[in-house]
Write a structure and sequence with these properties.
By secondary structure, the protein is α+β, with helices and mostly antiparallel strands. It is about 30% helix and about 20% strand. The chain has 2 helices and 4 strands; from the N terminus they run βαββαβ. The chain has a 4-stranded antiparallel beta sheet, with helices on one face. The radius of gyration is 12 Å and the shape is globular. It starts with a strand and ends in a 20-residue tail after the last strand.
């Protein structure tokens, strides 16, 4: 499982855009998004973390890999994202 912190993911539109980006790399990937914690967890056997990171970045977000799936910080830093940042 690959986990990213995406602090510029701020709303449902962001969740949808990131999910679509992940699925463009691996259609059958299991994607879990925690909007409140700004985390995206991806389970895939067809693609690696770099491919997912690039797809999320191309969608306009800033994915940061989380080693060991540690929880996000209590106070997320907002850097933009889509319409709500």
């Amino acid at each position: 499982m690959v986990t990213f912190e995406v602090t510029d993911m701020t709303c449902g539109h962001c969740v949808s855009a990131i999910t679509k980006a992940v699925r463009s790399v691996d259609r059958s990937a299991k994607v879990e998004v925690d909007l409140h914690a700004h985390q995206v967890r991806i389970e895939s056997t067809e693609a690696d973390a770099q491919e997912f990171s690039e797809a999320i970045a191309e969608a306009g977000y800033t994915p940061v890999p989380i080693a060991g799936a540690a929880p996000a910080s209590a106070t997320p830093v907002r850097r933009g994202g889509c319409c709500c940042g």
